[in-house]
Amino acid sequence: MTDQAPTPSEGPVPYSGPDRVLSGVQPSGDLHLGNYLGALKKFARLQHEIPTFIFVADYHAITVWQEPAKLKQQVREIAAAYLATGLDPKVATIFAQSAVPEHAELAWIFNCVARLGWLDRMTQFKEKSGKHKERSSVGLYTYPVLQAADILAYKATKVPVGDDQKQHLELTRDIAQKFNNDFAAPGFFPLPEPLTQGPGARVMSLRDGAAKMSKSDPSDYSRINLTDDADAIAQKIRKARTDAEPLPETAEGLEGRAEAKNLVGIYAALAGKAEAEVLAEYAGQGFGAFKPKLADLAVAVMGPIGGEMRRLLSDPGEIDRVLTDGAARARAIAAPTLAEVKALVGFWGA
Ligand code: TYM
What confidence score (pLDDT) does residue 349 get? Predict the structure, then answer.
């Protein structure tokens, strides 16, 4: 018995459908500056260029334990962050993943396309499961397959994410390619590309330039949260780890200075400038001078976002209306994709 579909005779056929943007964030802890610069900031810009679908990844969140009484509110918080960072629900489609069950149904089919060997290579599973792999949920292991379904249910071509998601995007392309081959549907799914350009793609911890800024870091001083007030933001930047050298004239001068490089990168991403421009402005100055400027900039950009999130969360009715409307619009795209997939697979009734 063979477990492989026949090899197609012709080579890959390019996708010829429309461009679509899709991305999501898990409702599993406070959002931080890394999420903002790596992902959310890009969503608001892209919505005006390409049809954009942005969701709250609550199916993904339950791959680790989530308190049922809190999950709905966590979803609303991410939706509030989307709106506060400039997503316009009249332009972009904003929804909760669990309100579009097509994601889960497509994920099952993809579970039968993806190979164990592909998932065994996923570094995020290794990091998240730690020493006790056998105690992790099965969902945590197949997490990237669900991510592929999120993307391909909309035949999305562009996925704005931080650097840490690149491997999941490679897996998505492998699944799309194998599906197209196995079911003799050349060019059916696009091979989506991650949008990770720019200085905010990998924001590091403020306490350790070798570790990613993360919701799971036990030290709150390692990150700036989207809901931090001006005092907290300024204090965290003041206490951020640095070195004693002044800022160099060129980016090469930051090599081997991970903490300095991170702060310059954060400044550049917040200001919408290239690292080289920031260095041209601050070369020769020490962190005693640079940090207050960075703090002012961070407060100016992040302060209003936190304020708007608090305003939105004080009236969940508005957020709930956005999510309800978004789910209907999302399903209008995802359901026909799934119907086509089921017909290709050969399911009864499809
Ligand atoms: P999540 O919720 O962990 O993170 C949300 C987004 O923030 C980015 N990010 C960072 N960017 C720069 N520097 C950092 N320190 C940093 N930390 C996080 C992440 O790269 C991500 O873009 N698997 C995804 C959620 C997801 C998804 C999808 C994304 C589910 N399905 C489909 C795109 C498409 C995740 O865990 O993101």
Answer: 87
